[in-house]
């Protein structure tokens, strides 16, 4: 088999692993969103029932838990969004460029996204170190703030890795002059 064939086969294998990992992380991110919805409903119901003396009120620390879960969910969705080309793009000129031009612009976009993902990972890691050192906690539940940072790091690492993979995928698309899968024009 030719060297190019081996590379394509390996890229396909890696792509399947990346797809499964990004999908699993997005599923867990969805569970975090479900937790947010349920917690919000229970807390609102508690507030409403408190006014008629039927319940004990809102869930203590609901806002703290929602803040942490929201941040984690966002980071868990980023790898899937990047892999599936779900970020916002401006396609004003893509119809005029042809497959190779579209592939080159996607390559540049993926290069910039990979750089952004690495910077986000770096800064989040510094934030995690700071929260670990300071021992800072939430006000009501006294949850250590580093928990949210640590969980978000999982998504940030995956985002950086998936971004690097999509950059590699874009190199193959440019080399083969093939338009990206979601942007084929014909």
From TrEMBL:
Pfam families: DctQ (PF04290). GO terms for molecular function: transmembrane transporter activity. The complex comprises the extracytoplasmic solute receptor protein and the two transmembrane proteins. Residues 36-171 form the Tripartite ATP-independent periplasmic transporters DctQ component domain. GO terms for cellular component: plasma membrane. Keywords: Cell inner membrane, Cell membrane, Membrane, Transmembrane, Transmembrane helix, Transport. It is found in: Cell inner membrane; Cell membrane. Belongs to the TRAP transporter small permease family. Its main location: membrane. This is TRAP transporter small permease protein. The chain crosses the membrane at residues 20-45, 104-124, 144-168. The keyword tRNA-binding does not apply. Part of the tripartite ATP-independent periplasmic (TRAP) transport system. It is a multi-pass membrane protein. InterPro entries: DctQ (IPR055348).
